[in-house]
Amino acid sequence: LDIQLYKSPGHHQEFLDCVRSRKRTLTPVEIGHRSQTPGHLGAIAAIVGRSLKWDAVKEEIVGDPEASKLMGKQMRAPWNV
Q1: Cα 36 from chain centroid?
Q2: Over the range 57-75, which residues count as b (16 or more CB within 10 Å of their CB) and which as e?
Q3: Domain annotation covers residue 2
Q4: Based on the structure, what is the number of domains in the chain?
Q5: I need a labelling partner for 61 at 20 to 30 A (CA). Which of 5, 12, 36, 40 fits?
């Protein structure tokens, strides 16, 4: 079993270095995104005081407009996604 360990300058610095160099981060962005989702949903559920139904394919809260508003902020013009 060949184990490779990488020396990282830290998540924030590594991200900035990769933006500049166009290299990939050590941890794939998709894994980072997916690992954050349960924490965000848990925080929103605590704020609204109820359980949430999550559509993982569409990445949206189902049937709860109040909770859905907490998933993100509206971007200022001219920025959009």
Answers
A1: 5
A2: eeeebeebeebeebeeeee
A3: no
A4: 1
A5: 12
- Helix ranges (H only) for the chain are 11-21, 29-48, 65-69
Q: Is residue 24 in a domain? A: yes
From the list 45, 40, 80, the residue with the least C-alpha distance to 66 is 45
Give pTM, 2 decimals: 0.71
- Residue for token digits 């160099």? 21
Residues paired with residue 61 on neighbouring β-strands, in sequence order = 54
Helix (H, G, I), strand (E, B) or coil at 28: coil
Nearest to 11 by CA among 29, 21, 3: 29
